[in-house]
Amino acid sequence: GLCATLLLTQTPEHIVTQTNNKTEILCELKERTGVYWYRWSQERQHFEFLVFSNTLGKATYGTNVSQDKFSVPEARSHSSYSLHISQLHPSDSGTYYCSISQSSQLLLGSGTQLRVVDALPLPPKTTQTPQSKKPVSWITKSKAASREGPCSPLVWIPLAAGVLLLLLGLVPSAHRLYRLRRRLWLRVHRQ
């Protein structure tokens, strides 16, 4: 199965960051080889080749890919690669994949979903409760789970919960936008 042959591990799975920030995606390999970085464009429905980083950290860029925006620092070790993306803009949102080629096929990492927003969907400061000791034991639990391999359901539960909370936070603002749009639409069509 997929879990047995994990030759590359990509982290993190999700990044939500603000315009003009910079961010970094990591890729750990099981073997010494160069890494290709791709972005899946949802609107254009295709894989866009960004940059190839060889074992010496020399970069080969895709056509029209900005070298100021995407950089691949020299690998920290033989097996650890990273993609730096700077001057972030909402149009940089998408799913980024590290990839290696093996016997004329591309093996993709798990993907990193990057969302660039003008303002982070953070809760208001006043509602934050002081950190209790509970999360600590919860972290050790998921650490133990990750030893069983990336396909253990225990790893996914906290992740899924996190994503769900994020999505729930975004629902009200989407709804508000929809209501506003509808109101404007009605106003225009009433005249």
Automatic annotation (TrEMBL):
InterPro entries: CD8B, Ig-like_dom, Ig-like_dom_sf, Ig-like_fold, Ig_sub, Ig_V-set. Its main location: membrane. It is found in: Membrane. GO terms for cellular component: cell surface; membrane. The chain crosses the membrane at residues 154-174. Residues 12-109 form the Ig-like domain. GO terms for biological process: adaptive immune response; regulation of immune response. GO terms for molecular function: coreceptor activity; MHC class I protein binding. Keywords: Adaptive immunity, Disulfide bond, Glycoprotein, Immunity, Immunoglobulin domain, Membrane, Signal, Transmembrane, Transmembrane helix. The keyword DNA-binding does not apply. The keyword Transferase does not apply. It is a single-pass type I membrane protein. Pfam families: V-set (PF07686). It comes from the Eukaryota. PANTHER family: T-CELL SURFACE GLYCOPROTEIN CD8 BETA CHAIN, T-CELL SURFACE GLYCOPROTEIN CD8 BETA CHAIN-RELATED. This is CD8B protein. It comes from Leucopsar rothschildi.
